[in-house]
Amino acid sequence: MTGTVSAVVTSVAIVLSCVGTLRLLGAHGQGWRPDSRALFRAGAIAVLVVANLTPVGSSDTASYAAYGRIAALGGDPYVTTPARLGGAYAHLVSDAWQNTPSVYGPVATWWQAAAGFVGGDRPLLTIWVLMLANAAAFLGTGYLLMRTAADPVRAVLLWTANPLLIGVLVGGGHLDTLVAALAVCAVHVARRATGRHHDLVVGGLVGLACGVKISAALVGVGLSWPLLRSGAWLRAARVTVAAALTLAALYGGYGLHALTPLSAASHLVSAPSLWAVFDHFATEFVGPGPARASISALWPVLMLGLALALHRHVPSDAPDIITVTFALAFAWVLAAPWSMPWYTALACALAALFRSVRLTQWLVVATAGLALLHNSGGHGWT
User: Cα separations (Å) of 9 from 23, 78, 379?
Assistant: First the structure.
């Protein structure tokens, strides 16, 4: 398709997926009670179909494949860029990321390296392996949510059978699926924690999630805050130390230089967004350095304020370890200078564990809005 036609088609698909998701959740709220297992199977079929199609929505999977191939060849993806790798892999990476080393954690690098080893010199095979692995993580997360949520049908509608999320997460093949999977496992263990070994497991899972994307630190904060409020300081310390040691061990295999690309990426501002407007005018008046510093100082404050506001709208009977983490994850999506539609994966997974119709609707609309703002028209490939 031409760029214009493709952009229209994908935009219509996003809108229809959003409306469909809202209508499914609305019907359930009005008494529709389908069999959650049958609904899960229907969603699983859609997931498997989409996972076997060309990635749509961004070229991130091409970057994943390039970093994985670099690692599989014995290189360091935190130093070597796709452009230096060259060949068929580099050809598929978006021009904007050709000279950018990996900003993902060691767990993500191993995940990508395994696909790169299987794919060899065939980047499309590597991307296919990544897509299938991502679909498996998505379905595994959905199954755990169905089995542990207060409302299994709602959990399936919000995750496995959510057409918007299937299009964004599975269709795009994004690593945020893996982050959500590890977060749901951490929450599951934390809810049933009875001894110190459970706290260590929770911390280890949080550390692994941070080893995929450092933004998963929000999960650690969300799980530790209720413990601190209840006076369980020792348990909170065990979770924090276990997460920190796990993350240190993961990065220890590469060295501190693996954090350099992440530090550089922390100053990025996505466009279009309110922070992009702020960055433009602040740069004009005070220069790029102070503008970046202002954004870095302001957005966490805004995130915490939004998290407090969101937390007031969660059900009072829902566990704090779920609702606090959800509020932080959702607020991060709304407040962060660099925010993409697939970043809502963590918030969607956590929202599936409690009942709140209004917050769920806001989350679905926010996901669709970000997807429309960052719609590449399916032309994420060079």
Answer: 21, 36, 12
The crossing angle, in degrees rounded to 10, of helices 217-229 and 233-252 is 160
The predicted-structure confidence for 339-378, as pLDDT tens digits, reads as follows 999 999 999 999 999 887 789 999 999 999 999 988 877 6
Q: Measured on CA atoms in the order 185, 190, 191, 197, is the torsion positive or negative?
A: positive
Torsion of CA 175, 114, 189, 39, to 10 degrees: 60
Mean model confidence pLDDT for the chain = 92
Select from 371, 360, 367, 373 the least CA-distant residue to 310. Answer: 360
Assigned token pair, 13: 């698909």
SS3 49: helix
Across the chain, where does the E strand assignment appear? none
Other Cβ atoms within 10 Å of 30 Cβ, number: 7
Q: What angle do CA 252, 133, 83 make, to 5 degrees?
A: 60
- Residue whose tokens read 């809810």: 191
* Mean of pLDDT values over 92-121: 94
Q: Within 13 Å of residue 191, how many CA atoms lie on the same side as its CB?
A: 18
Backbone angles phi, psi at 380, to 5 degrees: -80, 0
pTM of model > 0.90: yes
Kindly give, in sequence order, each residue whose CB lies less than 8 Å from that of residue 33, ignoring residues fewer than 6 positions away.
153
Q: How far apart are CA 295 and CA 315, in angstroms?
A: 32
Q: What is the pLDDT of residue 356?
A: 77
